[in-house]
Amino acid sequence: MIDAVIPPRSGTAFRLEKGQVLTVTDVEGVQVADLLAYNADDVREVVSSGRTLDYAETIQLTTGHVLYSNRSNRMLTIVEDTVGRHDFLLTPCSEATFRHFYPDQPVHRGCFGNLAEALAPFDVEPDMIPCAFNIFMNVPVAADGRICVEPPLSKAGDRIRLRAEMNLVIGLTACSAYASNGGRFKPIGYAINDS
Ligand SMILES: [Zn+2]
């Protein structure tokens, strides 16, 4: 169920029509994919972490949960999830986060830069990039509220499938940050099916 592969530390953008199902596959395992969704008819409407977590009443999103927009409309429904651990708290990695967390490593534009370039043809500007739904990202929350970024629990072939509830523009990456991906950068596979 893989039509295309996103090379390590890169990203892409494409349309996903209402009713179509997007499958995102961790090809080798232990790899995060940042996902953004915009209303294809008005890209000022965008997926919202705050709205989604509010309506879901949990931060552990999995099969059956809906990703909502900033206008409280349904954008995507998770119809299958073989991992059950994703993050919707943190923003895409960027040049600034590389400087903050990895001062001794080369700076990379990260998911933010990759998404900005891929989404530019759809009239999405960098300031229109919000908190992404971070597929396979493992950010446990401790009892005292502290969070940390652990390696993903996903293994080779694990996948999540999301059905579009409106016509969408999707941004999708193979994440570039060290901690998020267990210190090694792998590709992400995806496919689009009509149901
Ligand atoms: Zn990233």
Q: Sheet with the most strands?
A: 6 strands, antiparallel
Quickly give the structural class: alpha+beta
Task: Report the C-alpha radius of gyration, rounded.
Answer: 15 Å
Report the portion of residues in β strands.
Answer: 25-35%
| Structure ligands | zinc ion
Question: Uncertain spans, ≥5 residues at pLDDT below 50?
Answer: none
Q: How many H/I helical runs?
A: 3
Output mean pLDDT: 97
Strand order of the largest sheet: 1-11-3-9-7-6
Intertermini distance: 13 Å
Number of strands: 11
List the secondary-structure elements in sequence, H or E.
EEEEEHEEHHEEEE
Broad shape: globular
Residues in helix, %: 10-25%
How would you describe this protein?
The structure is a single chain. This protein is of the alpha+beta class and 195 residues long. The protein has helices at 49-56, 95-101, 110-119, and strands spanning 4-6, 11-16, 21-26, 33-39, 42-46, 66-68, 74-81, 133-135, 159-164, 168-173, 188-193. Helix content is 13%, strand content 30%. The two termini are 13 Å apart. Zinc ion (ZN) binds at residues 34, 92-93, 110-111, 175-177, 180. Residues 34, 92-93, 110-111, 175-177, 180 line the site of zinc ion.
